[in-house]
Amino acid sequence: MHLQKEQAILPIRLHSPCCICQIPIVAGSEILLLEAAWDLHVPKRAEGDCVSSSMILEHFDAWQGQCLVLTIVVILAIEWLGRNLSLWLVMKAFGTKTARFYDTRVTAIGVIHHELSHLLVAIFTGARIDGVKLYKIFQKQDDEVLGYVNYTPRGLYPFRCIQQTLIGIAPGILGMVQICTMSQLLLGFWSSLGNDCFKHPAIWILAIVMSQIAYHSCPSRYDIQGSWFCIGLVVLAFCLFRDNIFPTWFALQVIQCVAFAVILASAPVMLLSVIVMAAKLIKHLVFAGGKQIFEVR
């Protein structure tokens, strides 16, 4: 571009990250010329390319009902994997009796929260409550039920479907809300106090409660037994929603909070179990090797 007077080019970035407006400024005088040069740096997707992550996010931004359903599925999968993997490692390292004690006694707060979630949602949706036991202190050896809420759905069939679905997945939904709230409180304490926050007992209590809620948040097979058809109808109805009910940025934050809580709940006992299993393996190899050498001699 030819300019009649000496001037400097001042690049000014506008609101769009894809364009730069170059404005020539004449030293000591008025602006003589204004020219906008648009430089588009958006790469175009060629035919046959794989579907990018941005396209997936755009799809779930448009269909936020599907985003909500997928988020719930991912959260329940994370919670199920954290509990069952840690329980399996404890059983392999310490035995079935210790694993059962850990699952029923050490994490009793999570059991109570699990059953209380069923009860609150059952009352809120209008179901008839037939029996409640938030925590079974005395359990038989083969009894797998840690607590229970017996209820009877009421109303028309579509409403009964909604009742059964919400009551069945209540621990996962309410657990998700409470885990996100507690994790934000922990981050707030951390940002304001730094390492000094670990000196306060409230931080440790909050972390323990959050981890136990995460450990028992996944619904059991008894919670959704006989409700698969109703759950499928509710999921199908939510998948048809396109309204602004659950944006993707919020879904990703919720998944991160739940994953953090599950790791906090499972990592210590999983690490201890792996160390014990490794020590047992080393001990077995050492003694087996010594015995073999003695027999050869």
List keywords for this structure.
297 residues; 4 strands; mainly alpha; single chain; two-stranded antiparallel ribbon; disordered C terminus; 9 helices
What does this entry look like structurally?
The strands form two sheets. Strands 1-2 form a two-stranded antiparallel sheet. It is mainly alpha-helical. The chain is built from nine helices and four strands. Mean pLDDT is 77; it is low at 1-50 and 293-297. The radius of gyration is 29 Å and the shape is globular. A hairpin with a 6-residue loop joins strand 1 and strand 2.
- What percent strand? 5-15%
Helix content: 55-70%
- Globally, the shape reads globular
Mean pLDDT: 77
Mind telling me the C-alpha Rg? 29 Å
- Number of discrete helical segments: 9
Strand order of the largest sheet: 1-2
Q: How does the major sheet shape up?
A: 2 strands, antiparallel
> Structural class, judged by helices and strands?
mainly alpha
Unreliable segments of 5+ consecutive residues: 1-50, 293-297
Number of strands: 4
List the secondary-structure elements in sequence, H or E: EEHHHHEEHHHHH
Describe how the helices and strands are arranged.
Layout: E1 7-13, E2 20-26, H1 53-62, H2 64-94, H3 96-106, H4 108-125, E3 128-133, E4 148-152, H5 157-168, H6 170-193, H7 201-215, H8 228-239, H9 248-296
Antiparallel strand pairs: 1-2, 3-4
Helix pairs in contact: 1-2, 2-3, 2-8, 2-9, 4-5, 4-6, 4-7, 5-8, 6-7, 6-9, 7-9
